[in-house]
Task: inverse folding
């Protein structure tokens, strides 16, 4: 049995037994917040529990490292839509200790791409097209600095409402302990 067939079999029963009813909510976040966090599997259930969130409380956007890398990329677009269209009033950028993005080896990733059939010559084409694979796939060395940089990117975005608090936190993936890196209510320079 494939993973897809397992999912579909479970889903058929889930719908038939009306288990979805316990998750009923609207498209608007009850706590009026949007969270940008890492796609790390340890955070799937831990982070909402550590933040006292239940289904419907927050818009949660996940990406590798919880990094806002491009001012007009998908993550920033989602944040702006959450604020201007979906009634979010605060932004929380939540990185975590022991993040895989802190140990990214770009050369290794490129090697794995080639092993899976990506033509090596494509990387030359990308380079001449202005795509720096090392920059595009880069990680970070310090999660605190990464969170601060993402907070700055969101806070200083030309389309961001300056009255929206932008918070930065780091969560421990084993315990759920949250450390405040940036308190968005203190609309000054980033805290140390």
Result:
């Amino acid at each position: 049995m494939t993973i897809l067939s397992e999912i579909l079999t479970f889903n058929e029963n889930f719908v038939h037994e009306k288990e979805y009813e316990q998750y009923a909510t609207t498209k608007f976040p009850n706590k009026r917040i949007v969270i940008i966090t890492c796609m790390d599997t340890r955070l799937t259930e831990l982070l909402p529990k550590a933040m006292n969130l239940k289904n419907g409380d927050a818009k949660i956007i996940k990406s590798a490292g919880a990094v806002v890398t491009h001012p007009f990329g998908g993550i920033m677009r989602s944040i702006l839509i959450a604020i201007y269209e979906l009634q979010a009033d605060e932004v929380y950028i939540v990185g975590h200790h022991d993040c895989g993005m802190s140990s990214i080896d770009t050369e290794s990733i490129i090697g794995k791409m080639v092993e899976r059939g990506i033509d090596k010559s494509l990387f030359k084409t990308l380079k001449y097209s202005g795509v720096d694979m090392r920059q595009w796939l880069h990680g970070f060395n310090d999660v605190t600095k990464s969170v601060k940089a993402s907070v700055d990117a969101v806070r200083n975005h030309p389309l961001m409402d300056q009255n929206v608090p932008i918070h930065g936190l780091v969560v421990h993936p084993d315990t759920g302990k949250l450390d405040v890196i940036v308190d968005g209510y203190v609309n000054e320079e980033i805290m140390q």
Q: What stands out?
A: The longest helix spans residues 3-16. Residues 3 and 9 are 10 Å apart (CA to CA).
